[in-house]
Amino acid sequence: MRLRNIRLFAMAIATVLIATSCGGTGNSPQSASPDADCRVIKHEAGKTEVCGQPENVVVLGPNVLELLLALGVQPAGFADQMAFHQGKYDNPSQQIPYLGDRVKSQPANVGLTYTPSIEAILNTQPDLIVGSQWLEKEYGNLSEIAPTLLLEWFDVEGNLQAIAQALGRPELAEGAIAKRQEKIANARKKLAPAVKTNPKVLMLTASNLQEMVLITEGNSFCGSLMKDLGFELIYPPGIDRQDANLRPPLSLEVLPQFNEADSAIVLGYNFKDSSQLEGMEDFQERQLSGIEKSWQENAIAQSLDASKAGRVYFIPAYLCLGLPGPIGTELYLKELETQLLPSQ
């Protein structure tokens, strides 16, 4: 994953040619068409006109798939971030990490997020394509197939509104946004005892102890959510914790400098040999087994007070880095509650 892939997740991508396309950025949807059955949607690649109510929707990336599912819509085609599965998604629960059990259709496999198959997309006969901003080079080709939206990875609420308006059902976004906010508020209440007793948290993402990156409030939803829950993230002196582009590498040797942390959260990942997975349980196990074992066997990592107190928690990075929307948020909050709160 290295630094480029931290947004994995900071990860995904898609697009459209329409008569009203023009330059521009931003995800906030705007209605501006004289045709009552058409809407003009602002997105990262410009503006796109969508008419009627799209039914065959192709999504390019897991972060976009979760938004579609959160709105109660099933995909006609899907491009995953990694080659977890080859062929049609005829058994999604075992083929699509974390989201598959919510996919009731059998969407066509249209390639990978960053390199979708134009031919496969054409075969689905889509009337809407949705991807992330990193697909700008493919935008023209995608636009010739169907109206296309390219969305910014972490703008969850803006993205939900844009997709819902493109679907001709803007009210769907209101419910999905409210449900997500409610889950965060409920988690804040549940986690209040943990915040009170162990407020200071070191948070990082890593596949191994030689490739660790510090998570801050500004560089990911993972960090900003911890702050919203009431925790205080620990940083080295002089760091701009609000810088969204900052990806501070963290060497093993400097870990003792973070000894003031009451606990540590390690967002683990491992996408090697991803096409050789044997079901989703194998996927989840693989994300954490390597980094957890390395941490437990390393003298420096074990020298931290958080390690000695048994307060180092390992959570798949995929949940909040790859799926910052309503579904990923729900799964991530459940992990936090399960691990940080004492068993009842």
TrEMBL record:
Signal peptide start-end: 1-19
**Which CDD domains does the record match to this protein?**
FhuD
Q: In what residue span(s) does the Fe/B12 periplasmic-binding domain sit?
A: 56-344
Q: Which domain of life is it from?
A: Bacteria
Write out the GO biological process terms.
iron coordination entity transport
Q: State where the protein is found.
A: Cell envelope
Record key words, sorted: Signal, Transport
Which Pfam families has this protein been placed in? Peripla_BP_2 (PF01497)
The record, for SUPFAM superfamilies, names: Helical backbone' metal receptor
Name the GO cellular-component terms.
outer membrane-bounded periplasmic space
Q: What family does this belong to?
A: Belongs to the bacterial solute-binding protein 8 family.
- What name does the UniProt record give this protein? Iron-siderophore ABC transporter substrate-binding protein
Gene source species: Lusitaniella coriacea LEGE 07157
